[in-house]
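Friendly challenge for the regulars: who can give me the structure tokens for this chain first? No prize, just bragging rights.
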Amino acid sequence: WRRDIAFAGFEVPIQMDVSAEKMIFGVSGIDHQRREELIK
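First reply, four minutes later:
Bragging rights claimed.
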């Protein structure tokens, strides 16, 4: 993920502490069986 930040420049990589659970369950439109397979 990247974003433009006025004082840092364009296409700056986003760095933050995000749990894998939040990334997996935070995306809508995902096949539930595929999600369960990834968690295994």
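The chain has one domain: 2-39. Helices lie at 20-25, 32-39. Your move, everyone else.
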